[in-house]
Design brief:
The complex is a heterotrimer of chains A (about 425), B (about 80) and C (about 1000). Chain B is built from 1 helix and 6 strands; from the N terminus they run E-E-E-H-E-E-E. With about 80 residues, chain B is mainly beta. Chain C has 7 domains: about 110 residues, Ubiquitin-like (UB roll) (Roll), CATH 3.10.20; about 190 residues, FAD/NAD(P)-binding domain, CATH 3.50.50; about 120 residues, FAD/NAD(P)-binding domain; about 100 residues, Orthogonal Bundle (Arc Repressor Mutant, subunit A), CATH 1.10.10; about 140 residues, 2-Layer Sandwich (Gyrase A, domain 2), CATH 3.30.1360.120; about 90 residues, 2-Layer Sandwich (Alpha-Beta Plaits), CATH 3.30.70.1400; about 100 residues, Elongation Factor Tu (Ef-tu), domain 3 (Beta Barrel), CATH 2.40.30.110. In chain C, about 25% of the residues lie in helices and about 25% in strands. In chain C, strands 8, 9, 12, 13, 14, 15 and 28 form a 7-stranded mixed beta sheet that branches. Classes of the chains: A alpha/beta (about 425), B mainly beta (about 80), C alpha+beta (about 1000). Chains B and C meet through helix 1 of B and helix 19 of C.
């Protein structure tokens, strides 16, 4: 039986001041691992927790989430917090738009403030070719009913004066694509909010529990072997971004996935001056995306580290490259200091889009291949993946993410980079 | 990760090299060669190029969990001239 | 206001004037902002970011969480400058932070007086209705530390690359001993020290080494290091290690301006970065006047600045006693020395007796329960630990606290390496390390000077040996200083539950014991969860001050040993690094050096509007030809078709492919065969990526049986070269083919238009008349001009009679000017684009990495071809579905409408379902209307199909119809002229 946390509100905070110890409860409870479940979800990151929440809420199933380490210890707490749906391909933009709509109401749905901040996401164009590519993408979005605008320099200056778009730069800015509903979400809060909501619905969230194998009879999986013993399950979902290739090996299925490192960094806090998210891609392998958090730190990221890694130790020269772009965009912050750098492992697929599909067994599913875009997908992924696991049929929203697309050629290659996650 | 030791140029900083892809076992279909990657936490076999040096293509064996490079030779097994 | 001159190891007599919050102060040369202000009696340096509590200076080091100042005037301020590191200079303007309108009267502090309400998790539980966005801008207005700079006057940053045998990080007693041992053994040594002076704690600790005063020993070692050729970098912090390279950052004077990034590649590393003194949690331990004991000692010894008139010392180890004696010696009255340990655990009876003789109350088994005072410390509440309910209050203006030391292991253990809790040292110390790294001194668990020196000497010698040095390091220095600390665990003083919200753990983020208790109650048991939920350790010190304290409090509340709780993982950099330093040399024009063609200077001086194409700079149009790119492009294109013109094509990628297997190799790289090209001929060729999609197109010239020049799109040269080299080495067996990038070995000039042959003939003169006349389309001839190699290729990207001149850069300008003189004016990229779209030729807009050869209408090439890279995957079913795109031409249905690249194509009855998109459009002067190329579903690609080009982000919708891709001169009469 779950021990419910109080409903959160300003009122609850006020009451807590007088209620003393025992008023606040654990957000999720580490109940005992049962021997059998309807669904075992492997991985208590954003996708695993969101899927578990929807499995319990929408489908009434008994669910356990098994986590090797800690709730939200992977990429859900390591990303640069950006959410958006400004994708070119219909399979992607309809999916991410579904997610963005869910972000808009998620704090209320979960009764947990995930701090969705629709401050806009600005992609800078540095040439007419860039602008044409952005127009193509923007038009595709608008036809799908998704907000986005192509800004000329004057409009960009009004939208984001701090960018000083007319300033002389090595690569002058010529315009931008902006999605105003895009923005940021407090990343850790997403994991905690889903964990709390799932736990309240009776989902067992078991930390320090590593899944080491799958038990099966013929084409049907019967359960998983874990560091805490065997657990029977009607259905199994692997949602272990960053370790998907290893899951593939465990199941004996080679996957079109390489695991790469993506790093992020944050400056010391300064008074907020940058009120949107800016994405700056420039010739010579330059890429910097930057926003300023509600604490005042400049949060930045850029390219992958560029080779397979599970170390979570970002390379220093990449940090320098990201900062180069930031200083070029905002020379005035040159005297501000970088506090911390960190990194997450990303399962990069061979077309840059995710894989949500059945894998190897009739009742085993994988939710993977989020590349560096998994955070913003969490709400839509959780809902759609739950439907897939509960009904055995993929909803339209994720039908394009099937694994067989690589063999059939139905590739979802947004940038035209081909089967090379780090090709320049 | 530590430095790569190029068979031609000796130990050099990582920034001189570009990773290309992980390589699967010999044989396999064209599809497998292009799309199926061996994603191992203990041993990754990779093609790199020394673009900031001799431009040699290298076959690198690394432990992606520690970054340790266990072997670095020319692809195709050739010897530096 | 003339105070007597202070004496200290770092200050000189010279007076320096500066201002703080608008008031003028006098300091001495060598002072830091913290020491000068402390000496002037200033106690309040700023306010905390969350609760807006008044704060003083806590440390004398870079870890300082409170005394962060804004330097300079708006807009070119530098925020968050660490006062204990900032060297004052004449005229420096300093401001306190997080206060409005003034430090002592802050409006927001009144708003947040409800302390505790804003505890851990506050924001997650509220501001849910109606949405976070409703409140966000108000909350953001209170966020941040210092003012955001809106202008910058920073200069260049130097980047220095160093190689050495042994790098020693830290120049305290351990670092000095290690560096000397390594240098004596014959190693090339670099020593870097974060502070502006060497010596570490020997700057204030009294001790003797090898029979002399410790401070004199420091001087003699530095002299010896100099004579041994050791490079000593003071004011330089080792911040990270990556890829075998150590990154050290120097910011002289503690202020961005003359920074240097050192990139050091050592064979071995000695980490001797000492340990960071940490506070103890007690009520109101953040009041201005609470300071680390070691900091008070440093201010006194180095700057002659007294942090207090009358101080209570609060500690849990023996080091506090000699420190108290030294402080008393320096003129600070010690009101009491409060030791949490019981009498028998105190290991320095002599020092204790001396203190008592001097009249200092030494209280064993006592603790400071709380600091007293409104705006700064005015007293300390002290009680016996056995009976905390019977406290007494002792008046004082400072509480000097020391809870032990946390070894500074951070940068040293980023890559590999382990650590373990050492109950004697009271911190996590280094254990198994990679073979190239040696940890010495405090970070290795050595607790007193003699042991530190022996340990570090041995580490230095081992590091030198490992790096290949073989000389003798001599004997280890023998030293005696303060006794081993005899540290006993004591993390926080007893306090009623209500006061826990004023027991601070992390000053910069206002994390208190109450926050830890609450986050634990909410299930955040793991130290990593605690860090994320409370922001403990997110400050500039990354928790080096309070991280272990927080972990210890968590351990206490969990009822588990500290060793089990552990500390959160520290992230690079070790110490915050200025962004301008990280950008290093790559800033401004040097962000990415431009690639310029041999004709660049001519373009610049002749009115060309240059545009970046990748890293290349290319003329977009020439100002003389029109008011803007649109007008000039039309004028230039029209002139090419009417008479002729020349364009700089030097950016074209060129790869020389040579060797007995060259032809066979190229057959494998391209869709069609190179082996059938005859020497002296060129051929249009297309190559595929490994997955079957089109990678690039270009002309391949066969120079000889065994030699080809393959041209690539501009900016693709290096990538294509890698692609070729990979295939050669990994698949081809590596033999029989050499590949050379000759892009910059040949300038290229395009000569196009009806007059091109005549003008070219006139320029090249007699030797070229016959070969020129004989050139058919796709023939080339080789010869010379002005004594340098010249190849003339008859090929056209404009549909006109045209030639490409590939010449040595040395003659490019002469040739170009001769062609101009012969009446062929230059044209730029705008015109080039018009001409090629009129002819339906492809660029990266169509070869975009998403198109197959079928999509681009290259079925005939696929059929003809041979086994090649990418072909095997062309058969995939999706590539042959009716929804796949097809390259088509487009015109406006009414012959007038403008439509642009990037518009989406639909049919009117399904206006939201894109069938494709417009890839390129131009206004065609030859046809007098807008024309374009597009990729549209095969089901809708038939000639004459009406479509709607939808462009809601720009122009709106235009009705168009599908036409052939070749808009102009479909029979290619002009090209064959």
């Amino acid at each position: 039986m779950s021990i419910a946390t109080p409903r959160y509100s300003a009122w609850s905070l006020l009451r807590a001041r007088f209620a003393g110890d025992g008023y606040w409860r654990p957000l999720w409870t580490g109940r005992r691992l049962q021997s059998s479940y309807d669904v075992v979800v492997v991985g208590a990151g954003g996708h695993g927790l969101a899927t578990a929440y929807h499995l319990a809420r929408d489908h009434g199933l008994r669910v356990a989430v098994l986590e090797k380490r800690l709730v939200g210890y992977g990429n859900v707490g390591r990303n640069t917090t950006i959410v958006r749906s400004n994708y070119l391909l219909p399979e992607n933009h309809y999916f991410y738009e579904d997610s963005l709509r869910r972000w808009e109401t998620l704090s209320r749905d979960l009764n947990y403030n995930v701090m969705y901040s629709p401050r806009g996401v600005v992609d800078l164009a540095l040439s007419d070719d860039d602008l044409a590519g952005m127009a193509r993408r923007g038009n595709a979005m608008r036809l799908a009913g998704i907000d986005c605008e192509l800004l000329d320099l004057g409009a960009l200056e009004r939208f984001c004066p701090e960018l000083e778009p007319r300033r002389e730069r090595r690569f002058p800015i010529v315009g931008a694509l902006v999605q105003r509903r895009g923005g940021t979400v407090r990343h850790d809060a997403v994991a905690w909010g889903y964990a709390r909501a799932a736990s309240a619905l009776g989902v067992d969230i078991i930390e320090d529990c590593e899944v080491t194998g799958v038990h099966s009879t013929g084409s049907v999986a019967t359960g998983v072997e874990t560091s805490r013993g065997r657990v029977r399950a009607e259905r199994i979902l692997f949602a272990t971004a960053g370790h998907t290739g290893l899951i593939g090996r465990m199941l004996g299925v080679p996957l079109p996935v390489e695991t790469h490192l993506l790093q992020a960094m944050v400056s010391e806090p300064i008074k907020p001056f940058l009120h949107t998210v800016v994405v700056y891609v420039f010739p010579g392998h330059g890429e910097t995306y930057i926003c300023q958090s509600d604490r005042g730190g400049l949060v930045m990221g850029g390219h992958l580290d560029g080779f397979p890694s599970y170390t979570r130790e970002g390379r220093w020269d990449r940090l320098e490259e990201v900062v180069e772009g930031a200083v070029e965009l905002f020379p005035s912050v040159g005297g501000v200091r970088i506090l911390r750098q960190w990194a997450g492992t990303n399962d990069m697929t061979m077309d840059g889009s995710p894989i949500i599909d059945r894998l190897r067994y009739d009742n085993v599913y994988v939710n993977a291949g989020w590349c560096y875009g998994g955070f913003k997908a969490i709400p839509a992924s959780g809902a759609a993946c739950a439907t897939l696991v509960a009904t055995g049929t993929a909803p339209d929203l994720i039908r394009g993410f099937r694994l067989s697309r690589f063999a059939t050629g139905h590739l979802l290659d947004e940038r035209g980079g081909g089967p090379f996650p780090v090709r320049l | 990760m530590t430095r790569l030791i190029c068979p031609f140029c000796g130990p050099r900083h990582l920034r001189e090299f570009e990773f290309h892809k992980t390589v699967a076992a010999e044989g396999g279909s064209a599809f497998a060669r292009v799309y199926e990657r061996v994603d191992s936490a203990e041993l990754s076999i990779e093609h790199w190029q020394h673009v900031g040096g001799c431009r040699g293509w290298l076959l690198v064996r690394r432990n992606p969990s520690t970054g340790a490079v266990t072997d670095c030779q020319l692809v195709g097994g050739g010897e530096p001239a | 206001m003339s105070a007597p001159t202070r004496r200290g190891s770092r200050v000189r007599e010279e007076t320096v004037r500066f201002t703080f919050d608008g008031r003028e102060y006098l300091g001495q040369r060598g002072d830091t902002a913290a020491s000068a202000l402390l000496a002037a009696g200033v106690r309040r340096f700023g306010r905390s970011v969350k609760y807006r509590r008044l704060r003083g200076v806590l440390t004398a080091s870079a870890e300082e969480p409170n005394a962060l100042l804004t330097v300079g005037r708006t807009p070119a301020v530098i925020p968050n400058v660490v006062a204990p590191q900032l060297e004052i200079v004449e005229g420096l303007e300093l401001r306190s932070q997080n206060r409005w309108p003034s430090l002592d009267l802050d409006v927001a502090s009144l708003l947040q007086a409800g302390g505790g309400f804003f505890g851990a998790g506050f924001y997650y539980k509220t501001f849910i209705w109606p949405s976070w966005r409703t409140y966000e801008s108000m909350i953001r207005s209170l966020a941040g530390l210092g003012e955001a700079p809106r202008a910058s006057e920073l200069g260049e940053v130097a980047v220095e690359h160093l190689h050495c045998d042994v790098l020693v990080a830290g120049a305290g007693p351990a670092g000095l001993a290690a560096a000397r041992a390594a240098a004596r053994a014959g190693a090339r040594v670099v020593l870097c020290e974060r502070d502006p002076a060497c010596g570490g704690e020997l700057e204030f600790e009294t001790g003797r080494i090898d029979g002399r005063e410790a401070r004199d020993w420091v001087g003699s070692v530095l002299a010896e290091l100099k004579s041994l050729g050791v490079r000593v970098l003071t004011g330089t912090t080792l911040v990270a290690a990556s890829g075998g390279e150590m990154i050290a950052h120097a910011e002289p004077g503690g202020l961005p301006g003359r920074n240097t990034m050192h990139k050091i590649v050592p064979r071995t590393l000695v980490v001797a970065m000492g340990a960071v003194e940490r506070p103890i949690a007690f009520t109101a331990n953040d009041l201005p006047g609470v300071m680390l004991l070691g900091a008070a000692e440093r201010y006194l010894a180095c700057y002659g600045a007294r942090a207090a008139a009358s101080a209570v010392i609060f500690a849990n180890h023996d080091r506090a006693y000699p420190a108290a004696l030294r402080l008393a010696d320096g003129g600070i009255r010690i009101a009491a020395l409060v030791d949490t340990r019981a009498e028998p655990e105190i290991g320095v009876p002599a020092a204790r007796d001396a203190l008592r003789l001097a009249g200092v109350r030494c209280l064993a088994a006592h603790a400071v329960l709380a600091a007293h005072g409104g705006r700064q410390v005015s007293g300390a509440t002290i009680a016996p630990l056995a009976d905390p309910a019977r406290p007494m209050t002792i008046a004082c203006d400072a509480i000097l606290v020391s809870g032990g030391w946390s070894p500074a292991l951070h940068a040293g253990v980023q890559e590999g390496g382990q650590r373990e809790f050492d109950p004697l040292a009271g911190g996590f110390v280094a254990r198994a390390q990679p073979e190239w790294r040696f940890v010495a001194g405090a970070a290795n668990g050595a607790l007193e000077l003699g042991a530190v020196l022996v340990d570090a000497h041995a580490a230095g010698e081992r590091a030198a040996r490992r790096a290949g040095a073989s000389g003798s390091a001599g004997r280890a220095p023998a030293g005696e200083g303060d006794a081993a600390p005899g540290w006993r665990p004591f993390w926080r003083s007893p306090a009623p539950r209500a006061d826990e919200k004023r027991q601070f753990i992390d000053w910069q983020n206002d994390v208190t014991v109450a926050d830890i208790r609450q986050s634990l109650a909410e299930g955040f048991r793991d130290i990593e969860h605690l860090k994320r939920y409370t922001a403990l350790g997110f400050g500039g010190d990354q928790g080096r001050l309070g991280g272990l304290l927080g972990a210890a409090v968590l351990a206490e509340l969990r009822g588990e040993p500290l060793a089990e709780v552990g500390t959160s993982r520290l992230r690079p950099p070790f110490h915050p690094v200025t962004m301008r330093s990280l950008a290093g040399l790559r800033a401004g024009a040097a962000l990415r050096p431009a690639r310029c063609t041999p004709l660049h200077a001519w373009h610049e001086s002749h009115g060309a509007v240059l545009e970046s194409m990748g890293l290349w700079m290319r003329p977009r149009y020439y100002r003389a030809n029109g008011v803007d790119s649109f007008a000039a492009g039309i004028a230039e294109a029209r002139r090419v078709r009417e008479s002729g013109g020349i364009a700089d094509g030097s950016t074209l990628g060129k790869i020389e492919v040579a060797g007995p297997e060259a032809a066979a190799f190229l057959d494998a790289m391209y869709l069609t065969r190179a082996s059938t090209i005859k020497p002296g001929r060129a051929k249009y060729m297309v190559n595929l990526r490994e997955d079957g999609l089109v990678l690039d197109d270009g002309l391949v010239l066969r120079v000889a049986d065994d030699r080809f020049i393959a041209t690539t799109s501009s900016g693709h040269g290096l990538h294509m070269l890698s692609h070729f080299e990979h295939y050669r080495d990994a698949e081809w067996g590596g033999r029989g083919v050499t590949l050379t990038d000759v892009t910059e070995a040949w300038a290229a000039i395009v000569v196009a238009g009806p007059r091109s042959r005549d003008a070219l003939g006139a320029v090249l003169g007699a030797p070229w008349q016959v070969p020129l006349a004989a050139l058919r389309h796709m023939d080339f001839a080789r010869g010379s001009y002005a004594g340098h190699d010249l190849t003339v290729l008859r090929a056209s990207f404009s549909g006109e009679l045209a030639f490409e001149l590939h010449c040595r850069p040395a003659i490019a300008l002469a040739l170009w000017e001769a062609l101009i003189a012969a009446g062929l004016p230059p044209y730029g990229l705008e015109a080039l684009d018009i001409l090629r779209v009129e002819k339906g030729y492809l660029t990266t807009a169509e070869i975009n990495g998403q198109t197959t050869p079928y999509d681009l209408g290259m079925e005939s090439l696929v059929k003809l071809g041979n086994p090649c890279v990418g072909r095997e995957l062309l058969g995939r079913e999706a590539f042959h579905e009716p929804s796949r795109p097809r390259l088509v031409g487009l015109r406006a249905a009414d012959g007038r409408g403008r439509f642009l690249a990037g518009a989406q194509l639909v049919v009117p009855d399904a206006p939201s379902r894109p069938l494709g998109h417009v890839t390129s459009t131009v206004y065609s002067p030859a046809l007098g209307e807008w024309i374009g190329l597009a990729l549209v579903a095969r089901s809708h690609a038939a000639d004459g199909t009406p479509l709607l080009a939808r462009d809601p982000v720009r122009d709106g919708d235009v009705t168009v119809r599908v036409v052939p891709t070749v808009h102009f001169d479909p029979s290619a009469e002009r090209m064959k002229a």
